[in-house]
Each structure stands twice: as structure tokens, then as C-alpha cells.
Amino acid sequence: MSEEHWIWRRDHVIESDTAAGRRVLDEVLQELQARHWCQRDVFAVHLAMEEALVNAIIHGNRLARDKHVRISCRMSPELIRVEISDEGPGFDPDTLPDPTDPDRLQCPGGRGVMLMKAFMSRVEWGGSGNCVLLEKHRGKTQ
Q1: Fewer beta carbons below 10 Å: N end or C end of the chain?
Q2: DSSP 3-state assignment of 46?
Q3: Does 142 fall in a domain?
Q4: DSSP states of 62-95
Q5: Which domain holds residue 51?
Q6: How many domains does the chain have?
Q7: pTM for the complete prediction?
Q8: Sign (positive/negative) of CA torsion 125, 126, 132, 134?
């Protein structure tokens, strides 16, 4: 999509701090609501973006204050695109264990990637696995 179609954009570089991630998330959610996105879509973006931010801050950067998370947000009338990258070593999402496997059902973590894929229109990892692209196409308002 060419730049002129973006009606809202923000770029942030934050410390590896979940409170800083929450402030960026809140800004995105407020923008979606101000533009009258349906609650189902706002919930989907909330869930996926929160998972991606927590993964970048905790798993990627390991809460290291000297490492940063970059967040790029773009919104068109019908699409929101969020790219989140960290300074960690990355990972291969295809090697993650299946969180629905009966042996993994009691594990406290490991569902974030599955949830991102379930709630977003598009999820892709780039680089060495330390950058995620999240896209959500706007649904019909309720």
C-alpha cells in the first residue's frame, strides 16, 4: 500500500519495559476506537499487539534496559499494520511446540504466537525472527 493511503501513523522506540509498551498499545486502541472500528477488531488488535509487545520486551530483549523495541503503526481506512522489532537474537516460529497438544495444555506460556495468528488477518516474522508484522483488515461495524 502506498504512503498516501495511510490516514494515521506513529513510530515509537521504547525501552524494554512493559509499561512503555502498554502506553503505545493504549494509543493504538484509542485511535481505532476514535475511527469507529468494531469492538471485535479492537479486541483482536489489542490481544495480538499485547502478545507481540510482551514477546519483544520479555523474550526478545529479556527486559534489558539498554535494548529497545521499535514499533511502527500505520492505519488506512480499512487496515491497521503494526511492525514490532526487538534487539534479541530472534527465533523460528515454526519450531514452537503446539500449545494445543495435550502435553502442553497445562503449560503457562506458549500461546501468544497462536493467538496472534488466530486474531489477525496477517502475521509474518522477518529478519532472524526478531521482527513481527501484524495486520488486521477492518470488519463491518456492529
Answers
A1: C
A2: helix
A3: no
A4: TT-TTSEEEEEEEE-SSEEEEEEE-SS----GGG
A5: 3-137
A6: 1
A7: 0.92
A8: negative
